[in-house]
From TrEMBL:
InterPro entries: CheY-like_superfamily, OmpR/PhoB-type_DNA-bd, Sig_transdc_resp-reg_receiver, WalR-like, WH-like_DNA-bd_sf. CDD domains: REC_OmpR_PmrA-like, trans_reg_C. Residues 5-125 form the Response regulatory domain. Its main location: cytoplasm. One of its GO terms (molecular function) is transcription cis-regulatory region binding. Residues 133-227 form the OmpR/PhoB-type domain. Keywords: Cytoplasm, DNA-binding, Phosphoprotein, Transcription, Transcription regulation, Two-component regulatory system. This is Winged helix family two component transcriptional regulator. It is found in: Cytoplasm. It comes from Pseudorhodoferax soli.
Length: 231
């Protein structure tokens, strides 16, 4: 799901890097940390669309992070409603039940298929957003996050990875106005450098490909996709 940012809490560098590469191919922006305190620090400063949480961590049990997150105060960082998908080598039924009862949204036992993981992430994020349908539609525009396809008036539209991410972020937030910083946060990880006008350039390209009417500017605030008017 482009335009989605995930925090991977995994102490094995090989597994973490593999997840970064695989999920990156599916359009996710991926930040990786190796322990509980690093994960909590990241959650306090950044809004993530989902957390992939290993349970066996060097500084404690990942379940304590899940519990701490679910008990956080609403309306501030970290968001206690952030979807959490547990990934662990503990495959006993009792462990799965405990994790789900503590507030996990889904559970995968290692080893797992990377494509299944990406699909489960998309599913938990759809549920969290209250959007059961996999496709996003706005007028004659149709966006398929899983296939990373865009169609307008029935014809396919080619978008770059970043253009797709900006479009998806704005559609998911519609009709709210998002600042440039908010859009950047959904697309770029902590260690990615970007030019100061990157979002403006992506919006310019999207308007050329999809028309000027879809993405609106609120001067001095940011960008938004207006609420669809229905007859």
């Amino acid at each position: 799901m482009a335009a989605m940012r995930v925090l991977v809490v995994e102490d094995d560098p090989g597994i973490a890097q593999g997840l970064r590469l695989t999920l990156g191919q599916h359009g996710w922006a991926v930040d990786c940390v190796g322990g509980l305190e690093a994960a909590w620090s990241a959650l306090r400063v950044e809004a993530f669309d989902a957390v992939l949480l290993d349970l066996g961590l060097p500084d404690g049990d990942g379940a304590t992070l899940l519990q701490r997150l679910r008990q956080a105060a609403p309306g501030r960082q970290p968001d206690p409603a952030t979807p959490v998908l547990i990934m662990t080598a503990r495959d006993q039924v009792a462990s799965r039940i405990t994790g789900l009862d503590m507030g996990a949204d889904d559970y995968l036992s290692k080893p797992f298929d990377a494509h299944e993981l990406a699909a489960r992430l998309r599913a938990v994020c759809r549920r969290a957003a209250g959007r059961p349908q996999p496709l996003l539609r706005h007028g004659t525009l149709e966006v398929d996050p899983a296939a990373r396809q865009v169609r307008q008036d029935g014809r396919g539209v080619e978008l770059s990875t970043r253009e797709f991410g900006v479009l998806l972020t704005l559609l998911q937030a519609s009709p709210r106005v998002l600042s440039r910083q908010q859009i950047e946060a959904s697309l770029y990880t902590f260690d990615q450098a970007l030019e100061s006008n990157a979002i403006e350039v992506h919006v310019h390209h999207l308007r050329k490909k999809l028309g000027d009417g879809l993405i609106q500017t609120m001067r001095g605030v940011g960008y938004f996709v207006p609420e669809e008017t229905r007859p």
